[in-house]
Structures are given as structure tokens and as C-alpha cells.
Amino acid sequence: MLDEKVLVTRSSMPPYEEYIEAIRPLWDSHWLTNMGKYHRELEKQLCDYLDVPELSLMVNGHMALELVIQSFGFPEGAEVITTPFTFISTTHAIVRNRLQPVFCDVRAEDGTMDETKIEELITERTVAIVPVHVYGNIGNIEKIEEIAYNYDLKVIYDAAHAFGVKYKGKGIGNYGDASVFSFHATKVFHTIEGGAVASSDHELYQRLYNLKNFGIRGEELVVSVGANAKMNEFSAIMGLCNLNHIAEDIEGRRKLWSKYRERLSEIPGIDFFADNPDAEKNYAYFPILLREEYPAGRDGLYQALQEEGVYARKYFYPIAPDQKCYRKKYGRAEVPVARELADRVLILPFYAEMGQEIQDRILDVIERR
Ligand SMILES: *Cc1c(COP(=O)(O)O)cnc(C)c1O
Fold first, then answer.
1. Nearest CA to ligand 1 atom 7
2. Counting Cβ atoms within 10 Å, is residue 29 exposed (0-12), middle (13-18) or buried (19+)?
3. Which residues, in sequence order, are bridge partners of residue 179?
4. Tell me: the pLDDT tens digits for 182-240?
5. Confidence of residue 369 (pLDDT cuts 50, 70, 90)
6. Is 244's pLDDT higher than 70?
7. Which amino acid residue places its CA nearest to atom 5 of ligand 1?
8. Tens digit of pLDDT for each residue in 47-96?
9. Pocket test for ligand 1, best of 66, 184, 193, 315 (most atoms within 8 A of CB)
10. Does the beta carbon of 86 lie inside 6 Å of ligand 1?
11. What is the per-residue pLDDT across 248-288, written as a single tens digit (0 to 9) for each?
């Protein structure tokens, strides 16, 4: 048993003094939100880091997704093809926009949307495709965008797991009509709560600005019906501080990742998602897939780890369409591969500061079963 509980992740924190020094100017300016100096500075630095031309910061990833979907103005009840193998936020963002999610099965090798099954789901009511770069895996985005082009559909990527991922040498936020990042405390890079939309469409930012700030365009001028989804200055400063340390953080993750891979490859019954040779990883998560050859099975291992104080997670089980709120509403989705992955997957604890000792203890438990 480890002395302390080990959770699946632990939020990275900048040195205390660094953050305290960085927020001190707020006590002079008293400017705490409303697209302040640090909001603008973080937007600028993130454009550099993510290699995108423009970015709109939001209060969290979910609102970024909801508002970007809303910004396209799709007709009520229109269909959106999406993945069942994701965090529930993706599906909620579609449904809360009064659109109909249509679940497309995923690829066994990396858990991303199966591009060969998209076309059969397209109807005259389809308006968009919302794929997810699950665990930072980039699926067949060329094919997805070709289909979208042929059928005149929008592509909005949920890139919440893909912060800093590059594909074919370009920032992942350059693909599709828009990409949404999450900067939640549990993500590779965080602003406590936060998110952003990246797109190469300059007009889109005008609509997003209105949606995230009540449609206010002047002291006495409201041009549209907007929500409030602005990032505040304390969060923006947390982001600026974390960005100072992101390289060492990802390097720390890379080392742990290699060690996990090395020792787990020796154990029968453990599979990994395939690496994409065209993508530069961010080492966001460490998912494994258990096969029958692994005696304890997925649930047995999950239990065994918990008995040692290690809290791995079954992301994403159950899949979105099997959750109570959607099963009732839409019935059983035909997505056998997603359901199988959900039964086999386990996310192991993984964060830069985890250290060798904890990792060795986790590996010992996995080897013993
Ligand atoms: C974290 C996450 C979100 C939501 O982001 P928040 O910043 O927590 O609102 C959406 N989609 C996926 C796949 C996520 O992992």
C-alpha cells in the first residue's frame, strides 16, 4: 500500500512564488476579467505554442465547444455525426444546442472516429462532424475532411486531449473548421478551468466574441444574444505560468511513458493504442487495453490497483450513448468497437511529478496479476 492515494492525474502547479509574483499587478490594476491584459497575453503566447493564427480563450472547454457549435447556426434538430468514445461533454455540447447526435463507431487501433463508417450515416439533415482526438490520437483526418467537403459539412474537432500535438508538422488546431481545447486542471496544460477555440476563419472569432461576452459591442450596444464564457485574469496568469514549464512537464511525461511501455510490453494480454508516425505526441494519458490473456481482466486490475491505493480510471466507460441520459433518449447505438474498447481500457496514473518509485509500485501490481 502506498502512503498516499495515487490518482489518475495530478494538476501541475507552477512554483508558488512565481504565481504570487505574477498576480501581484492585479492588486494595482483591479482589472480581474473582461479580456484584460493577461487574457490577451495568454492568447498571444498560445497562438505561438499551438502554432495557430488566432485563438479565442473561454471559461472552459465545454463552453468553448457549445459556443463554437452554436456559432454555425445549424437548424434545430439537424444531425451531427460524432464519436461515442469520448468524455460526455462532447455529446452534451451537441444535444444542448438542440441538435441530434449520430454515433459513428471508432477504429480499434486508436479509438478515433472510423472514417469508413461516416458516409453511411449521412442524411439530408446532417450538418457537421464532431470527431475527438481521443488521448491525443489523431485519426484519419484527411479522409474525414474529404467527406465533409464532398457533402458540405462542417468539421469541429474536440481537441481537448490534443494540446500541443502537431500533425504533419502543423499545430493540430489548424485542421477542420474549428478545434476546441480544454485547459481544465486535469489536462496537460491548464488554467485551473479554461478552454479555447482555434480556427483559420477570422469571421468565426467575431461570432465567438459576441457569444462569450453577451453580444456587447459598445457601452450602449448589444448586437446579438450571447452568453458569458470569458476567461478571467487569475486563470490567464495561471496559464502563463504553466506555459513557462510545459516543456519540462512534457519531457517528464515522456520518460514515464517510455518506462511504462517498456515494462508493460513484456506482459501478455496488454495492448496499446497505435502510434501515428505523422503526429508529434503530447503524452497526455497512458491508456492500456486488457485482453483475455491478462488473468485479472480489466476490472480485476482496476480493483487490485485500488487495494494498493492506486486509482486508475476507465475512460471512457460506459460510452456516451450507453449513459442513462442518452440510452433512454436514443436507444442502443450500433457501435460495437467503441463498446469493446470501453470494456478493455484502463487509464494508468500519469503525470510528470509522479516519479519512478510510484510508477514502479504500479508496475509491480500489474505484473503480479
Ligand atoms: C475535458 C474534456 C472536455 C471538456 O473540457 P472542460 O474544460 O472540462 O469543460 C471536452 N471533451 C473532452 C474529450 C475532454 O476530455
1. 61
2. exposed
3. 157, 198
4. 999 999 999 999 999 999 999 999 999 999 999 999 999 999 999 999 999 999 999 99
5. confident
6. yes
7. 61
8. 999 999 999 999 999 999 999 999 999 999 999 999 999 999 999 999 99
9. 184
10. yes
11. 999 999 999 999 999 999 999 999 999 999 999 999 999 99
The closest-lying atom of ligand 1 relative to the alpha carbon of residue 194 is 7
Q: Which residues of 332-349 are buried (b: 16+ CB within 10 A; e: fewer)?
A: ebebebbbebbbbbbbbb
Mention every residue, 6+ apart, whose C-beta is less than 8 A from residue 43: 55, 56, 57, 196
Instruction: Work out the number of other CB atoms within 10 angstroms of the CB of residue 291.
Output: 12
Do residues 61 and 182 lie in contact, with contact meaning Cβ atoms separated by under 8 Å?
Answer: yes
Q: Please list, in sequence order, all residues whose beta carbon lies within 8 angstroms of the beta carbon of residue 57, skipping any fewer than 6 positions away.
A: 39, 42, 43, 46, 194, 195, 196, 230, 231, 236
The answer to whether the CB of 184 is under 6 A from ligand 1 is yes
- For residue 257, the CA-to-ligand 1 centroid distance in Å is 22
67 lines ligand 1 (CB under 6 A): no
Would the CB of 189 count as within 6 Å of ligand 1?
A: no
pTM of the model: 0.97
pLDDT band at 1 (very low <50, low <70, confident <90, very high): low
Whether residue 4 has pLDDT greater than 90: no
Q: Which atom of ligand 1 is nearest to the CA of 134?
A: 13
Ligand 1 centre to CA of 29 (Å) is 32
- φ, ψ at 166 (rounded to 5°): -115, 140
Residue 73 main-chain phi, psi, to 5 deg: 65, 40
Answer whether 97 contacts ligand 1 (Cβ < 6 A).
no
**What is the Å distance from ligand 1's center to 285 Cα?**
14
Ligand 1 center from residue 182 Cα (angstroms): 5
Give yes or no for residue 359 having a pLDDT over 80. Answer: yes
